[in-house]
């Protein structure tokens, strides 16, 4: 076999591996909804709950009501590499061309603030879940890739909500 063919093939394979691992934009998207189906009956999963806000409607991607708290989940589907900067309004996303996204942590905190005023003060746990991105930069306990979601939710074991309070919250958000 020609040495140039072997060299060219090796370079092409290495470039493909580098691109896929660097950007992860070619990976299949993970569905947060399908992951949440792994939770047992002590968790109530609500999808697309809508609550009336002061200036319009608030849509929650996913809400998980449990004895351990109310998990408010924001699903982020950006492919590529996301540079997490907790104190900045915008985060840089690379892969398929540079772009920016609004800080989802700020967004979910605003939603929880509105929920506290409308629904009541409960133990809300904000989770920002990326389904296709590779996260770099600042780390935060509640920002993760989708593969860590179910284990993270299950790690909360302190009982914080009675059955009555859980039913009340589910009733309001349903």
Description:
The protein is α/β, with parallel strands linked by helices and 174 residues long. The protein has a 5-stranded mixed β-sheet. The protein has a single domain (27-173), classed as Trna Endonuclease, Chain: A, domain 1. It has 5 helices and 9 strands; from the N terminus they run H-H-E-E-E-E-E-E-H-E-E-E-H-H. The model has no long low-confidence stretch (mean pLDDT 85). It has helices at 3-23, 32-36, 104-118, 149-154, 163-173; strands spanning 44-53, 56-66, 69-76, 80-84, 90-94, 99-102, 124-130, 133-137, 143-145.
How would you summarize this macromolecular structure in one to three sentences?
The protein is of the alpha/beta class and 174 residues long. It has helices spanning 3-23, 32-36, 104-118, 149-154, 163-173, and strands at residues 44-53, 56-66, 69-76, 80-84, 90-94, 99-102, 124-130, 133-137, 143-145.
Task: Output the keywords.
174 residues; alpha/beta; Trna Endonuclease, Chain: A, domain 1; five-stranded mixed beta sheet; four-stranded mixed beta sheet; 5 helices; 9 strands; 33% strand; elongated
């Amino acid at each position: 076999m020609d040495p140039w063919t072997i060299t060219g093939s090796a370079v092409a394979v290495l470039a493909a591996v580098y691109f896929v691992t660097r950007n992860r934009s070619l990976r299949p998207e993970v569905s947060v909804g399908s992951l949440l189906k792994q939770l047992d009956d002590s968790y109530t999963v609500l999808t697309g709950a809508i609550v009336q806000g002061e200036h319009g409607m608030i849509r929650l991607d996913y809400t998980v009501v449990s004895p351990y708290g109310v998990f408010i989940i924001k699903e982020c589907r950006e492919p590529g590499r996301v540079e997490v900067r907790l104190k900045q309004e915008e985060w840089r996303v690379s892969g398929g061309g540079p772009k920016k996204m609004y800080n989802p942590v700020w967004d979910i905190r605003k939603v929880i603030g509105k929920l506290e005023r409308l629904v009541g003060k409960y133990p809300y746990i904000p989770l920002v879940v990326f389904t296709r991105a590779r996260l770099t930069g600042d780390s935060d306990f509640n920002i993760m890739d989708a593969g860590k979601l179910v284990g993270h939710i299950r790690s909360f074991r302190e009982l914080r909500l009675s059955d009555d309070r859980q039913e009340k919250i589910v009733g309001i958000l349903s």
